[in-house]
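Lines hold sequence, tokenised fold; shown next:
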Amino acid sequence: MRFMMLVKHAEDSGPPPKELMDAMAKLSEEAVKAGTLVDSGGLAPTAMSTRVRLSRGQVAAIDGPFTEAKEVVGGYAVFELKSKAEAIEGALRFMELHKKHWPGWEGETEIRQVFGPEDFPPKA
């Protein structure tokens, strides 16, 4: 089963401490060796982003920053795992690293299963 983890936090959290980055690199290395990490990365701030929106029949591109954004997706990881329980365990470990290495930081990791074509069989 494939899962995407989305890390959400306030836009103005600042750069993560080096200790956290080192701990996350070690966690990622372990996941690569285990063959479970498919892809991961941090995302640029909304000031460097663009949204393409369809609204009322019109498509428009809107440059950031986005003033209505209270929290943003700051990073992601995609894993190939055996179960949702395994995904939850991984997210708990990841958030414990934040608790340990970035006191006062607040955020969340959202776990979403990634569906593939096999999850939507053709209709007869």
User: Anything to note?
Assistant: The chain has one domain: 2-116. Residues 85 and 91 are 10 Å apart (CA to CA).
